[in-house]
C-alpha cells in the first residue's frame, strides 16, 4: 500500500524550493542523531533550486549532516564532469563548503568510465544495496509530459517491474542515455515528494493526481511513497486542479 497524495501549496517556484528544502531539513532533524538518513535528490530547475536552498540553510549544519546520504534518482549518462549531469549541477549549488561529506554523496558513474549505462546502473543498484538504503525521501521533479526520474510515458523503462536501477536509452528528452531508479524502487521509499512549478506543468499535475491515469501514460501518477506522497505545487502548476 502506498500513501495518497497530499498537496503542499506554494506561491511560486522559489517558494516550492524553499518549502521542500525546509521540509527535508525538518525530516533530518526528526531522525535521531546516529541514524543514517538516505535522500534521493533530483535535477531540473526546481530540483536544483531545492538543493541550493538546502545548502544555504544553517539548520543543516546543526542536524548531524555526517549521517545524511544523498543519492540521485536519475542521472544523465554523459561524461563525469559534464555540466549536463545532475550531480555536477547540484555540486555547483552546494559549493566546496557543503556540510554533507563528499563520501556520502552517491554518484552514478560517468559515460567516460568505460562502463555501459547498464553496468553503471547495476553498480549504482549494488551501492544502494550495500548501504542498505531504504530511502527516507525520494524527491522528484516532473516534466510537462508527466515523466519522473528518467521514466518517460510510453517508454519501456516505466514498465520495469524490478526494484532497482536501470539504463534508459533513446530518451525522448536529451540526452538519450540515462540511468534511473525504477518505479518499484521509487515506490519502495518511505516518502515521495514531487516538486513542480509553472503553468506548463498544470496538465501533467492534473493527470498525475487523477485516479484514471496509469504509470505508463503518466509516470508521476505512480510516484507514491509507502508512508507519504506529497506534491509541492505553485499557483500556476496547480491551476487546473478542482
Ligand atoms: O533529467 C532531466 O532531463 C531533468 O532533470 C528532468 O527530468 C527534470 O527534472 C524535469 O523535467 C523537471 O524539470 P524542471 O523542474 O526544470 O521543470
Automatic annotation (TrEMBL):
Keyword tags: Hydrolase
The protein's Enzyme Commission number: 3.1.1.31
Reactions catalysed: 6-phospho-D-glucono-1,5-lactone + H2O = 6-phospho-D-gluconate + H(+)
The keyword Hydrolase belongs to this UniProt entry's keyword annotation: yes
CDD domains for the chain: 6PGL
Pathway: Carbohydrate degradation; pentose phosphate pathway; D-ribulose 5-phosphate from D-glucose 6-phosphate (oxidative stage): step 2/3
Family annotation (InterPro entries): 6-phosphogluconolactonase_DevB (IPR005900), 6PGL (IPR039104), Glc/Gal-6P_isomerase (IPR006148), NagB/RpiA_transferase-like (IPR037171)
Domain Glucosamine/galactosamine-6-phosphate isomerase, first and last residues per copy: 12-224
Pfam families associated with the record: Glucosamine_iso
Molecular function GO labels: 6-phosphogluconolactonase activity
Function summary: Hydrolysis of 6-phosphogluconolactone to 6-phosphogluconate.
PANTHER family assigned: 6-PHOSPHOGLUCONOLACTONASE
Family: Belongs to the glucosamine/galactosamine-6-phosphate isomerase family. 6-phosphogluconolactonase subfamily.
Protein name stated in the entry: 6-phosphogluconolactonase
Amino acid at each position: 500500500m502506498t500513501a495518497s497524495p497530499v498537496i503542499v501549496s506554494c506561491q511560486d517556484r522559489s517558494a516550492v524550493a524553499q518549502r521542500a528544502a525546509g521540509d527535508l531539513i525538518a525530516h533530518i532533524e526528526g531522525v535521531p542523531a546516529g541514524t543514517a538518513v538516505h535522500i534521493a535528490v533530483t535535477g531540473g530547475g526546481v530540483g536544483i533550486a531545492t538543493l541550493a536552498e538546502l545548502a544555504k540553510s544553517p539548520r543543516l549544519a546543526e542536524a548531524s549532516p555526517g549521517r545524511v546520504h544523498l543519492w540521485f534518482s536519475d542521472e544523465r549518462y554523459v561524461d563525469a564532469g559534464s555540466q549536463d549531469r545532475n550531480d555536477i549541477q547540484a555540486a555547483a549549488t552546494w559549493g566546496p563548503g557543503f556540510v554533507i561529506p563528499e563520501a556520502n554523496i552517491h554518484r552514478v558513474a560517468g559515460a567516460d568510465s568505460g562502463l555501459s549505462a547498464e553496468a553503471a546502473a547495476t553498480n549504482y543498484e549494488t551501492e544502494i544495496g550495500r548501504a542498505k538504503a531504504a530511502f527516507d525521501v525520494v524527491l522528484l521533479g516532473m516534466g510537462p509530459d508527466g515523466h519522473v526520474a528518467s521514466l518517460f510515458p510510453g517508454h519501456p523503462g516505466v514498465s520495469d517491474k524490478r526494484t532497482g536501477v536501470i539504463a534508459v536509452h533513446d530518451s525522448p528528452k536529451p540526452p538519450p542515455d540515462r540511468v534511473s531508479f525504477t518505479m518499484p524502487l521509487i515506490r519502495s521509499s518511505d516518502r515521495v515528494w514531487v516538486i513542480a512549478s509553472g503553468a506548463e506543468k498544470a496538465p501533467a499535475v492534473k493527470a498525475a493526481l487523477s485516479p484514471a491515469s496509469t504509470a505508463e501514460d503518466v509516470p508521476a501518477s505512480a510516484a507514491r511513497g509507502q508512508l507519504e506522497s506529497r506534491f509541492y505545487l505553485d499557483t500556476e502548476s496547480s491551476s487546473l486542479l478542482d
